[in-house]
């Protein structure tokens, strides 16, 4: 839609998520004890999961415990949304959109990651529990989330002008030092992206490693070490 100039057709998607921001904040607080906002995978237009995914029978289950293991611990939706919003702003130059929609979503999504997970021995965010898409349903520092944090924080800090403001810039600069490294493997002298720092419980046949190539574009044409993206593919 951006390439064809149909920017207006993206606005309903963004309005839907911006309208859910208050609910996403409450979900993060009540279900995860976190600040910020968490947008769930496969949400309805009004922001909640299907009853079958969440689970009809709740007796003895902790609030927020999902019955559907394929989407139970997918956290990266807000990061992917923020990446799309950054693309939209880059194409349109819409400063009102940046101020009123993009930055509130980005601030809330990143605050969730900074407050909703423990730290490892080095003081970095440890994304656990987690899963790499629907495929690896028990992953630590899953690649889509880690790649999203690297890509989104770099682009937010590169925004020109006075926005996002000195306070947010300082907070995001500090957070950038706390995000996990991209999980990489090597074989035969070639490096490639892994689905996570650890991963197990295979449940589907997606390729979460390639989130580093798209939508987060860490390894693409014109960037260093393109061979890592090619070897991952």
Provide an overview of this structure.
This protein has 233 residues and is mostly helical. The chain is built from eight helices and four strands. The protein has helices at residues 11-19, 21-32, 51-54, 77-92, 95-115, 143-157, 166-176, 226-232, and strands at residues 136-142, 184-187, 190-193, 196-202. The protein has a two-stranded antiparallel ribbon. A two-stranded antiparallel ribbon has the order 2-3. Strand 2 and strand 3 (190-193) form a beta hairpin. The longest helix is centred in the middle third of the chain and has 21 residues, at 95-115. The two termini are 25 Å apart.
Largest sheet: 2 strands, antiparallel
Give the class from helix and strand content and strand pairing: mainly alpha
N- to C-terminal distance? 25 Å
Provide the residue-averaged pLDDT: 96
Number of helices: 8
Helix content: 40-55%
Q: Any idea what the radius of gyration is?
A: 18 Å
Strand content: 5-15%
Detail the poorly predicted runs.
Answer: none
From N to C, what is the helix and strand string? HHHHHEHHEEEH
């Amino acid at each position: 839609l951006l390439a064809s100039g149909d920017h207006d057709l993206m606005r309903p998607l963004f309005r839907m998520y911006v309208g859910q921001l208050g609910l996403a904040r409450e979900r993060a607080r009540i279900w995860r004890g976190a600040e910020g906002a968490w947008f769930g995978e496969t949400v309805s237009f009004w922001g909640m999961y299907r009853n079958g995914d969440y689970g009809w029978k709740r007796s003895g289950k902790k609030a927020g415990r999902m019955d559907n293991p394929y989407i139970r611990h997918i956290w990266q939706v807000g990061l992917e949304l923020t990446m799309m919003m950054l693309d939209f702003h880059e194409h349109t130059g819409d400063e009102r959109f940046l101020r009123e929609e993009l930055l509130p979503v980005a601030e809330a999504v990143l605050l969730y990651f900074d407050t909703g997970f423990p730290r490892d021995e080095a003081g970095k965010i440890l994304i656990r529990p987690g899963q790499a898409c629907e495929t690896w349903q028990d992953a630590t520092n899953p690649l889509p989330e880690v790649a999203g944090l690297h890509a989104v924080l770099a682009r937010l800090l590169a925004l020109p002008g006075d926005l996002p403001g000195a306070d947010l810039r300082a907070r995001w600069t500090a957070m950038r030092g706390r995000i996990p490294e991209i999980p990489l493997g090597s074989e035969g002298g070639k490096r490639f992206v892994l689905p996570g720092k650890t991963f197990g419980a295979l449940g589907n046949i997606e390729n979460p490693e390639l989130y580093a190539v798209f939508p987060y574009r860490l390894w693409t044409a014109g960037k260093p070490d393109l061979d890592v993206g090619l070897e991952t593919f």
